[in-house]
Every structure is written in structure tokens, then in C-alpha cells.
Design a protein that fits this description.
single chain, 241 residues, Phosphatase 2c, domain 1, five-stranded antiparallel beta sheet
Length: 241
């Protein structure tokens, strides 16, 4: 298994509030986390870092109890995200300038030919299998809701003025219900984890072509492309193959 990652401040923001974690290749737990923070001066930066650290620690401390059972791993990820939500929420209440901070969070564990996913917010997980590029997560956003209800098209969603409005984020309320799922991860599959700083600036078909062209350099190329197209937000891409 190989992993590549790049995170960039973009061309507009004053700081990078994205964060990511990649487990050491020698670790038993193959874990990958991406978070896109939001909220005030340094609030988003604190929220994303705190969420990743909390979820990571929870999983490491409790993974052995799963015995690598599918349902138990899904429960572990769900509990880890709920724990991270509580930690971020409590911190936001303790420190006045952090009040209202939050973050997206995507947690992946790869185990025995499967990828286990926990998801909150509008960062995304994609899988490229042969020529089929599929979004595995569903955005928790107002615009995604409009698309699902048939009120707007996917093309209209791409340029919608409220496309950054989240319906669910981590750390903003006392409780959050993450999406959890398990998908196949076969030989030659490629996974992409990314924040909306990429997907709002680069179309999915272009992202797919860049990854297919050379997955080992794709993170850098994707970030550069997002910046060329405006770089209106922080940009993070993690590729696993």
C-alpha cells in the first residue's frame, strides 16, 4: 500500500484550516483521516486538528477489541467520531474565541480487502476502479439535499451560491450522527480523500483523469490545478493505492 498527500493554503485564505493524518506503514491499523475546519480566527485550525487527534487516539486505544470484525470496526469508527465531536464541542465552550468552531471529518480504515468509512460534512472519499470514478460519501450540505430532492441538477449545484452551507458538521452541536459504511478495496483500486477546496475548483472528470494519468504525482497536480482555477479555499488531497 502506498499513500501520497498534499495540503495547501490556496490563494485566498490567510491560514490553512485543513488537516490530515496518515498512519505509519508499519502500524497494524491502516488509518487515514481528513478534516476541513471552520470558524473564526484559528477556530477551524483548532477544530480540525483536535478532531483528528481525538478520533485517531480513540481508534488506536480500542481497535484490539474489534477482533477485526466488520460490524465492530464500523461501530468503532462511529464511536470515535462521536467522541471527537464531544471533544471539539466542549473545547469550543471553554474558550470564547473558539465558540462556534467546527470541522468536517472523514475517517478511513483499510482492513482485509475492505475500506471502512466514517463521514461528517462535505469533504469526500472517492474510489477509482478501472475507469469508474465513484464518490463513496454523500455531502452533508444544503445543495446536496436540493440535488437529492430533485430541485436542482448536479450542474446547477456546482455553481450554487450556497454550496458551502453544511447541514451537518463535527463539533457544532453536542451530538452528531456520522455516516458509516464499508466498501470493497481491491487490488489496483485507488482511493482519494479530499476537502471541498479541491472539488469546488476542479471538476470530477478532471480529477479522475489526473489520478489515472499518474496517481503518485496526482496530489501535487490536483492542488496546482485547484490553485490555477482560483484556489478559493484550502486544498487537501490524500491518495491511497
Amino acid at each position: 500500500m502506498k499513500t501520497f498527500a498534499r495540503s495547501d493554503i490556496g490563494r485566498i485564505r490567510e491560514m490553512n484550516q485543513d488537516n490530515y493524518f496518515i498512519s505509519d506503514p508499519n502500524d497494524e491499523i491502516k488509518m487515514f483521516i481528513v478534516a476541513d475546519g471552520m470558524g473564526g480566527y484559528k477556530g477551524g485550525e483548532v477544530a480540525s486538528a483536535l478532531a483528528i487527534e481525538s478520533a485517531k487516539s480513540y481508534i488506536k486505544n480500542n481497535f484490539e477489541e474489534t477482533n477485526k470484525d466488520k460490524d465492530k470496526i464500523l461501530d468503532l469508527i462511529k464511536n470515535a467520531i462521536e467522541y471527537a465531536n464531544m471533544v471539539v464541542y466542549e473545547r469550543s465552550k471553554e474558550v470564547e474565541e473558539l465558540n462556534g468552531m467546527g470541522t468536517t471529518l472523514d475517517v478511513l480504515i483499510i482492513q482485509s480487502g475492505k475500506v471502512y468509512i466514517g463521514h461528517v460534512g462535505d469533504s469526500r472519499v472517492y474510489r477509482l476502479r478501472k475507469d469508474f470514478f465513484r464518490k463513496l460519501t454523500t455531502d452533508h450540505s444544503y445543495v446536496e439535499q436540493l440535488v437529492r430532492e430533485g430541485n436542482i441538477t448536479k450542474e446547477e449545484a456546482y455553481n450554487h451560491p450556497k454550496k458551502n452551507m453544511l447541514t451537518k458538521a463535527l463539533g457544532c452541536t453536542a451530538f452528531v450522527e456520522p455516516d458509516v459504511m464499508v466498501k470493497g478495496f481491491q487490488k489496483d483500486d485507488i482511493l482519494l480523500m479530499c476537502t471541498d477546496g479541491l472539488t469546488n475548483m476542479v471538476r470530477e472528470d478532471v480529477i479522475c483523469d489526473i489520478i489515472k494519468d499518474n496517481p503518485e504525482t496526482a496530489c501535487e497536480v490536483l492542488v496546482n490545478k485547484a490553485n490555477e482555477n482560483g484556489g478559493q479555499d484550502n486544498i487537501t488531497a490524500v491518495i491511497i493505492l
